[in-house]
Amino acid sequence: MSEKKAPVAPRSADAESVGGVERTQFQMILSRFLRHRAAMVSLVVLFVVVAAAFLGPFVWRWDHTVHLEIPPSVPPNADHPLGTTTAGHDVLGQLMRGAQQTLKVAFTVSIVGTVVGSLWGATAGYYGGRVDGLMMRVVDVFMIVPLLVMVAAISGNVRGGTTWYAVALIISFFAWAQIARVVRGVVLSLREQEFVEAARAAGASPGWIIVRHLLPNAAGPIIVAATLLIAVAILLEAGMSFLQFGIQSPDISLGQMIGDARTAASTRPWLFYPPGVLLVVVCLTINFIGDGLRDALDPRQSMVRR
Amino acid sequence: MLVYTVRRILGAIPILVLASVLTFVLIDVSGDPLTELRMQQPPPDPSVIQLQEERLYLDRSMPERYWLWITGIGGHGDIGLLQGEFGPSTQSNSYDIGAAIAERLGTTLRLVAAAMVFALGLAVLAGVISAMRQYSKLDYTLTFIGFLALAMPVFWFAGIMQQAGVAFNDLVGDQVFATIGDGLYQAQGEDLWGRITNAFAYMTLPTIVLMLTSFASWSRYQRTSMLEVLNSDYVRLARAKGLPNRVVIRRHALRTALIPLTTVVAVGIAGIIDGAILTERVFQWRGLGEFFITAVEANDSYALMAWLLLSGVLVILANLIADLLYGVLDPRIRYE
Amino acid sequence: MTTTDHMSNEETASPGTGDVVLEVSDLSVTFPSDDGPLPAVREVSYVLRRGEALGIVGESGSGKSVTSMAVMGLLPKNARVEGSAKVLGQEIVGLKDEQISKVRGNRIAMIFQDPLTSLNPVYTVGYQIAEAVLAHRKVGKKAATARALELLELVDIPNPEQRLKQYPHELSGGMRQRVVIAIAMANEPDVIIADEPTTALDVTVQAQVLGALESARKETGAALVLITHDLGVVAGHVDRIGVMYGGRIVEMGPVEDVFYQPRMPYALGLLGSLPRLDEDRSERLTPILGTPPSLLSLPGGCAFAPRCPMARDLCHEQEPRLLATDGNGERVSVQVGDTDTHTSACHFSDELENAQPTDLFRGTAVEADTTEAAEEQAEQAEQALAEVDGTSGGAAGGSGREAVLTVRELVKHFPIRSKGLLKRRVGEVQAVSGISLDLYEHETLALVGESGCGKSTTARLMLQLIRQTSGEVHYRGQPLHSMSPRQLRPLRRDLQLVFQDPFASLDPRMTVADIVAEPLRIHGQGNGTARKRVRELLELVGLNSEHGARYPHEFSGGQRQRIGIARALALNPKVLILDEPVSALDVSIQAGVINLLEDLQDDLGLSYLFVSHDLSVVKHIADRVAVMYLGKIVETGTAEDLFRAPAHPYTQALISAIPLPDPVKERTRERIVVTGDVPSPANPPSGCRFRTRCPKFADELSENERVKCVEEPPELVDRGAGHPDACHYSRAVELF
Predict the structure, then answer these.
(1) What is the DSSP letter of C55?
(2) Partners of C53 in the β-ladder
């Protein structure tokens, strides 16, 4: 045995060391995430996009509506960095407003869908048996309907136009199923874990087990699924708007901008490309962040290594 | 196997029923088919509205209407799925929803089938290559393409492909790719070679567009599933037997890694149908996408329900086929 | 040295003259990892002669499996392999995959650990065997299938024609492992490497599979490399043995030499930490302190030095080479081909002449989590014991024979439900079929049986974690079986559970302190008292109380199991249900946990229900034993009685199937062998449930006598053996 002795920490240091180590586990997840280069770059890019979408309109001269002062159909220039539309919109103004609306819809869908899906999935998984069977059949139905068709049909069916939150609610109504499936699977396997049985053997109530064990352990997969749901929602909203069944004029969204510029791709490319590139960038960054989170929270499932 | 098949078919029925209820209620609640009429200025005569309400069965309660929609009992003979009638249209008195769908179904299915076949083939190929060369440059490239494709809005990509097709045509000075229309009219009266070139010209770009997303997600899935199998004990045993690498890959790894893909592909059909509507819109095909868009614009409830139910049936059918295929491919399921 | 030489020549099948079929020299394998290169195997050398059997023994992470994967050329591409491995003189290392595949499965074959995953689920068994034949022989499909049939017969598979057409999932684990052996034998290889071939199997099936391996080897004359962690398995089946530690072979020699005269403290320690079926219970196990080294940060000198009681400065500075010790106690090198000499990698191996494990590893009753703090820990533990003893009210009086937990006619059937929406009940698994038990104060009752016999279900029923179909469970007169969860709650303080898998039983997202404190918090104890109690508990189980703030993944298996025990003790329970508490642990770690359990029982006056499949451990720890088979108790009695003279044929078979870590005894002992697999508990045999596998039923009984076995379920009564058994024709047999 070596002469080295483990240093005995003074009593007062104990509370500190607890906090210190809790940080350590968080740090471990954080450091794994930080090592995921694509996710890190994505996080920065997404931050810039979000900041521009929400703060940009306060700074930029033009908003997303038609102004008589704006010359129609002008290619990008100093006054209008992304050009103008035939009707007299400033494209940069539209782009910021469009991104903002798209992001608002997507984040709302992610939150509502995750909450509803988690509750649904956790209930099915926790009770199992027939309850699970019935609840998951409902999920099956939501999984098989073509999402875009469904949301577009309903949104377009509502006369008088839909606002961004109506669009968000309609998408949420259909998009929670995937989350429910993920959460149910996690809960189902967690329920059989020995540490849950240990808690039951110690006399823990179902509430205790759900709060202390199931939720913290399911948090990782739920966070990842919620992140990826943002990208799904963005593409859904864009598709609806492209078909003119989403957010209605005079409000604008990125999909609508592409829809309006559909036939102008060759003649006025400044109308067609910016909203598309922005959509791709946002979705790409979110997917990479999702992968980075998966890598950090659940190393076994990652797609890209660093 | 027979028991398994029967059980699977019976299992699909409640889902179909549930899907029909969901579709009906949502469409019914979300909009009023007569909005346009009611909003007209000057307001139309109340009797006109009443007449339309009777024609569209809006004077009955929702459960009654659902029953009517399914069975047609007590209707005017233009409704009842079980009798092959889809219900009255708002678009005009003579608009036959069933006939309109039948006319366009082929166009859309042609596109969906082509996209599925190519997406599946290429996805398996890319997934296997990616898995075998894990963490190589090629793997990273394919992974990035996958991520990019999953982030790409179908309709925007379609626009780009359209532009690219036009540019290519200009470059070679010939109409190699058609960028507008479904080409069915042009194919009429052509000989076999003419039909093939026609199909190539009209189908290529939309197929590439539509398969992109599915290709991306399926190739990712195939890569994961292949990696899992490549690390399995039985592949190790197959190697230990002294089988050459390509035999191990083909016979043991690929064969088993393909099994779970059947389910994923079946579920993915819903996504392809979504994509088909957008693709048809950009390339201006007269398919079910156009039917759908006009139906939404006209608040044509029965047409929408018919459409949604049809896509539901397609997806359920695909899942059923996948389930049966799964049973054939995996003996563990077969003898369950 | 001369005496052992003499012995090995006598015992082994003269491998000295055979030619070399496998020669491994200076083989090293390094894996890249996030934390730097990981040297899994370091400079391993050995030779294998024709027809010889070599055992490679080591704990998890010792590099024993990686070595053989390297020899097979089956390592992943990112592994860096250096050195040489020659099969029949042909170099394998550095060869292209296509070239190795000509040798693999042809001259050298491998059997893997888990038979449930080794066979491809989508092909028939026959196809997979024939495939191995076709890979190397230019024969038609018909001939290959005929060969497959022949091979199935060779490994004793009943109804081979029928089996050929079956898929792997239709076969039991034991059957599947035989199929894997058949595949290995397909081309009559010169070398077979068996990597833990029976670890995943039950003991009675293990005996069958080892038998099949023997007979197949006899048929083909193949040499064998048997890799295992089980010293008992190697003792009876190999001529020579190599012990691996920290990626190196640290001791090698004829099996008797290594077992009776170990020359390396690690081997000696392993033998000392093994509970043995052929020894008395009173002997305390001598565990090795500490945990195996991390391959990422190997110590500078000898890898075992940090755990070695006789380590000196030299050991920490210079890594010892694998050398022999000559008559004068000098360490000398030997020829690579010299297989008769006993070599070891210890600077001071000469001091180990005739050493006993207790000489070296004495006074290590409490294993510490870090060796540095070991002594300090031991002291702390003693103090903590004294403290806790005071608080628990001195329940250490063991002589009062009052039953604390009684079980009467306990039955549990699990419904088998149809898939689909309706979930109709289509049958039931009779997991537990009428069990009666008494657990007395301050005693250890062991519940023994193979997988699927219902022992874990019984344990959970006793805790009312699942509810019984019928029957009664009383704790100190209170009817647990009829209480509501709310009523049960206060009683749960007295009845606690320790799990098998130390990795699954601790919530990965909680700190150790939170895990241990959880039962206290559930029962409403404030943070202040809980924190103090957690400290006490951690010290009590031999862990550093400062470690409470860490997360479970930072601990080794043995330490995690201690955390699980600390949690179970948190509420001062009277009864601990231990569900296979040591079966997931390495041998050297296991001994420490067993000692801890024994100490805790003595100090806290606990009653243990010890559920286990491992009879050696049970013999060591139990006062009384109940043997279960297919949901019923077939024999019960004091451990002493039951092991000395078992009366039920199943108990006899079970005991004689346990391999003894003693080469001579293991080869010469009398065996009672059972055939076949355990029937499905969904459809158990009528009458005596064991009759389908019973050697007595098959070989000794007359037609008339058998009728009773088929028709009448035997009662559990004393039929003259001095303890109850459930066999109509029981007869006590002394096996030792």
Answers:
(1) E
(2) C224
Q: Superfamily for C369-622? A: P-loop containing nucleotide triphosphate hydrolases (3.40.50.300)
3-state SS, B145-173, equals HHHHHHHCCHHHHHHHHHHHHHHHHHHHC
Q: Which residue of chain B comes nearest to A236, CA vs CA?
A: B153
List the one residue out of C206, C249, C221, C189 whose CA is nearest residue C113: C206
Q: How many domains does chain A have?
A: 1
Q: What would the DSSP string read from start to end of B46-82?
A: HHHHHHHHHHTTTTS-HHHHHHHHHH-TTS-SSEEGG
User: Which pLDDT score is estimated for A103?
Assistant: 93
Instruction: Give yes or no for A33 touching B (CB within 8 A).
Output: no
Contact assignment for C120 to B241 by CB distance below 8 Å: no
| Partner residue opposite C499 with nearest CB, options A5, A198, A203 | A198
How far is residue C205 from each of residues B299, C200, C458, C582, measured CA to CA in Å? 70, 10, 23, 21
Domains C9-238 and C369-622 share a fold: yes
What pTM does this model have?
0.84
Nearest Cα residue to C163 out of B216, C294, C151: C151
C441-481 confidence digits (pLDDT tens): 989 999 999 888 999 999 999 999 999 999 999 999 899 99
Give residues with Cβ within 8 angstroms of C392, minimum separation 6: C572, C604, C605
- ipTM reported for the complex surpasses 0.90: no
So where are chain C's domains?
9-238, 252-361, 369-622, 646-725
Nearest Cβ partner of C122 from B10, B239, B329?
A: B329
The full 3-state SS of B184-238, as one line of letters, equals HHHHCCCCHHHHHHHHHHHHHHHHHHHHHHHHHHHHHHHHHHHHHHHCCHHHHHH
* Amino acid at residue number C493: R
**Alpha-carbon gap, residue B32 to C25, rounded angstroms:** 84
User: For strand C80-87 and strand C20-31, is the pairing parallel, antiparallel, or unpaired?
Assistant: antiparallel
Q: Is A129 on the interface with C (CB under 8 A)?
A: yes
Output the CATH code of domain C9-238.
3.40.50.300
With an 8 Å Cβ cutoff, are C167 and B335 in contact? Answer: yes
The pLDDT of residue B18 = 85
Give contacts of B 23-52 with A, CB under 8 A. 23, 26-27, 30-32, 35-36, 39
Out of B11, B244, B252, the one facing C120 most closely (by C-beta) is B252
Q: Which chains touch A (3 or more CB pairs under 8 A)?
A: B, C
Q: What is the pLDDT of residues C714-731, one digit of tens each?
A: 999 988 888 999 999 988
Low-confidence ranges of chain B (pLDDT < 70): 1, 334-336
Q: Which residues, 6 or more positions from C41, have their beta carbon under 8 angstroms from its beta carbon?
A: C27, C28, C29, C63, C66, C67, C70, C247, C248
Range of the domain at A155: 29-63+83-305
Residue A195 with chain C: CB contacts under 8 Å: 504-507, 515
Q: Which of C719, C562, C707, C529 is nearest to C634 (CA)?
A: C719
Contact A154 B299 (CB under 8 A): no
Residue A299: count of CB within 10 angstroms of its CB: 12
Q: What are the structural domains, with CATH classification, of chain B?
A: 106-298 (1.10.3720.10)
Residue type present at position C55: G
- pLDDT (0 to 100) of residue C378: 47
Asked if C423's CB is within 8 angstroms of A21's CB, the reply is: no
Which CATH number covers residue A59?
A: 1.10.3720.10
CB C92 within 8 A of CB C103: yes
Residue A74 lies in a domain: no
Q: For residue A203, list chain C residues with Cβ-Cβ distance below 8 A.
A: 488-490, 492-493, 519, 522-523
Which tens digits make up the pLDDT trace of C381-409? 555 554 444 433 333 333 447 789 999 99
Say if the Cβ atoms of B245 and C101 lie within 8 Å: yes
Whether omega for the bond prior to residue C254 falls within 30 degrees of 0, making it cis, is no
Amino acid at A147: L
